[in-house]
Design goal:
alpha/beta; five-stranded parallel sheet; 13 helices; 12 strands; 13% strand; binds (2R)-2,3-dihydroxypropanoic acid
């Protein structure tokens, strides 16, 4: 039996858990409940590798625990803003993630939310379930077309580009985006995309604004009341990135006062808690962080973690090293 001790902090696809067990001395989390800070500290002291996910907060206070055995954090996910990266670096911890394999499924969820918000799908579902629907009516629940509208992307990485492809080639949408440096010319040509000089320009010109920047201190409340106020009253805001990129209270004000038409959220500040006023609003569609939640994608994410573990313990180059 391999003596390398690996902790998986949540339940993973069964095929990946089984494969891990054939290679390492693995501890699984059968209960599938999030670990507390003291359990995470204990994990860092007792395992060679810890494999966390977005629901495990690893701030300096946890990462600096004394007598660490852990050498590597193999994150099950592409975003790593739940890990204090500069402290991890100081503590000589290697961090890996799972880029590339969740691009399409996350972009699909952004498309889902855009369509749900534009076409009032969640509200319609609630109407049917409440048995209050009186039948077809020419003016009932009128909404906005996605086809031919302008999609504005804040951030233009892999997921944003995948959404842009689906929106442009599938729905004939015009693509505008903000990213500090211009994107690859081939991608711009394929999408006939227009780069805006500022976030403000995207907010003003788009019918749908979709957020695609990493979470963390640098982007906290990047989309604040001032920027939301620039959106058209007919526009919709979609967030599949990280909850803290968007000021939730400001969004609630915009939705309540109908300064914008709607929003679709897959991520939240202080997840899994959801700011209660959001739950009262009909013009917001809410999903429980489903971006990468397909069987194929979660399995591919697990395979990436396996590859990173193998590479590390066989002293090979790490496929997905963050630090
Ligand atoms: C990620 O990978 O960062 C997702 O948000 C969780 O799958």
């Amino acid at each position: 039996m391999n003596q390398t001790k690996v902790l998986i902090t949540r339940k993973w696809p069964a095929s990946i858990e089984a494969e891990l067990q054939t290679h390492f001395d693995v501890t699984l989390n059968e209960k599938d409940t999030p670990l507390s800070s003291s359990e995470l500290k204990h994990a860092l002291q007792n395992y060679d590798a810890v494999c966390p996910s977005v629901c495990d907060s690893l701030p300096a206070e946890v990462l600096t625990v004394k007598n660490k055995r852990c050498k590597i954090l193999c994150n099950f996910g592409v975003g790593y803003n739940h890990i204090d990266i500069s402290t991890a670096k100081k503590e000589n911890l290697i961090v890996t993630n799972t880029p590339g394999v969740l691009t399409e499924s996350t972009a699909d969820i952004a498309m889902t939310l855009m369509l749900m918000s534009a076409r009032r799908a969640a509200e319609g579902d609630r109407l049917v379930r409440s048995q209050q629907w009186q039948g077809w009516c020419p003016t009932q629940m009128m909404s906005s077309d996605v086809t031919g509208a302008t999609l504005g992307l804040i951030g233009f990485g892999r997921i944003a580009q995948a959404m842009a492809r689906k929106a442009h080639h599938g729905f004939g949408m015009k693509i505008i985006y903000f990213k500090p440096s211009p994107a690859d010319q081939k991608i711009i040509d394929d999408l006939n995309a227009l780069r805006c000089d500022t976030i403000e320009q995207v907010m003003q010109e788009a019918d749908f604004v979709s957020l695609h920047c990493p979470g963390g201190e640098a982007t906290r409340h990047l989309i604040d009341q001032k920027r939301l106020n620039l959106m058209r009253p007919t526009a919709h805001l979609i967030n599949t990135a990280r909850g803290d990129v968007l000021d939730t209270k400001a969004l609630v004000e915009s939705l309540t006062l109908h300064k914008i038409a709607g929003a679709g959220l897959d991520v939240y500040e202080d997840e899994p808690k959801v700011y209660p006023p959001l739950l009262e609003l009909d013009n917001v569609s809410l999903l429980p962080h489903l971006g990468s939640a397909t069987i194929a994608t979660r399995t591919a994410m697990g395979k990436k973690v396996l590859n990173n573990l193998h590479a590390f313990f066989n002293k090979q180059n790490l496929p997905d090293q963050v630090i």
